[in-house]
Amino acid sequence: MIKRVLVYAYGKINHDHTYRAATHFAVKHNCQLTGIFVTDDYSRFATIYGPSTVNMAHLYYTKQKEFETQAKEHFSEICKEIGSNSQWHSLSKVKAQNKPAMYTDVIFVSQPSAENHEVFDDLRFVDHLIIDTGIPVIVIPECWRQKTFASHPMLGWKESREAVSAVRQALPLMRRAKQLDIVTIVPSLDQDLDLVAGVEISAYLAAHDVECKFQAIETATEDHNEAATLQRHAIMHQCDLIIIGGYGHSRLGEIILGGVTRDLLNSAKVPVLFAH
User: Fold this and answer.
1) Nearest residue to 26 via CA among 90, 102, 93, 107
2) Angle formed at CA 33 by CA 174 and CA 212, multiple of 5 degrees
3) Helices assigned H by DSSP within 8-112
4) pLDDT of residue 101
5) Residue 133 to residues 6, 107, 125, 126, Cα–Cα distance (Å)
6) What is the rounded CA–CA span in Å between residue 208 and residue 213?
7) What distance in Å separates the CA atoms of residue 25 and residue 151, rounded to the nearest whole number?
8) CA dihedral in degrees (211, 271, 139, 70; nearest 10)?
9) Nearest Cα to Cα of residue 137 among 245, 24, 240
10) Are residues 177 and 98 in the same domain?
11) Residue 195 neighbours by CB distance under 10 Å
């Protein structure tokens, strides 16, 4: 059961699309909604570069306060418009940023943006939320404008610990969905093997009252990786949420070699729920 929803904001980018998604979700599930603005540790300027950079630290702090004021105003307006009771907090200490996630059921966060990296390393922050909190993290793309989502989700399935974790954590959403597409990507199609691969996960979800169907698909020639194939299926079949296990390989390995998690973080056009 989902009772608490947390939405993070940071940096100078507009988070309105994420606020709206989180607020509609909280109203639909009758949840408590909390917004949190996080900043980097501005004191690092002085500790790393010496006391002569105190002015730089002060400027950074001032800018962050301006960004937070704008973020809070937008969040409050959207919550009032949609009709959700909410709370707002700010955190400036790096060590405290993950702590609120320990006491929530679902985290919402905006898709990382290259525009924001000079102010706040949001890609690294979202990485840590996925890996360190043990809480499902829903990443909302900037282009997402629908009021609701998860009525027709898609599960990117493989027999791995991370995928199993995603299934467990997303069960409340899957039960409420009209239909769940279970998709596994294979090098080449084999009807008998693919059928066997889908029987157990389909039976497990059916036992938990999830309406689902299984499909094995090949990576299309026009897709440069598995993430692109998953996205193409989601868009073609009008799926409004991708559910996937995050970072099956190490974070460093995905940064160097690439991986489904990192590719979806950077390029997804529909919301993605990551669980690790």
Assistant:
1) 107
2) 5
3) 16-28, 44-49, 54-82
4) 83
5) 12, 10, 11, 10
6) 14
7) 11
8) -130
9) 245
10) no
11) 12
Domain of residue 200, residue span? 153-275
| Bridge partners, 6 (sequence order) | 34, 107
- The Cα 97–Cα 70 span in angstroms is 20
Run of H or E residues at 257:
helix 251-257
Given a contact cutoff of 8 angstroms between Cβ atoms, the answer to whether 195 and 161 are in contact is: no
pLDDT at 254: 46
d(CA 14, CA 12): 7
Cβ–Cβ contacts within 10 Å for residue 261, how many? 24
How wide is the angle at C-alpha 261 spanned by C-alphas 74 and 272, nearest 5°? 45
Q: Which positions of the chain have pLDDT values less than 50?
A: 253-258
CA 144 – CA 234 distance, rounded (Å): 14
Written as one letter, the residue type at 111 is: Q
Residues in CB range of 191: below 8 A, 6 or more apart:
none
Rounded to 5 degrees, φ, ψ at 184 are -120, 140
Last residue of a domain, one of 140, 168, 187: 140
Structural tokens at position 217: 């698909």
CATH of the domain at 18: 3.40.50.620
Q: Which two tokens stand for residue 243?
A: 């559910």
The last residue of a domain, from among 112, 140, 168: 140
Q: Is there a contact between 34 and 14 (Cβ–Cβ < 8 Å)? A: no
DSSP, res 269: S
Residue 75 pLDDT:
97
Instruction: Give the Å distances, CA to CA, from 130 to 161, 190, 265.
Output: 14, 33, 11
Structure tokens at 203: 């039976």
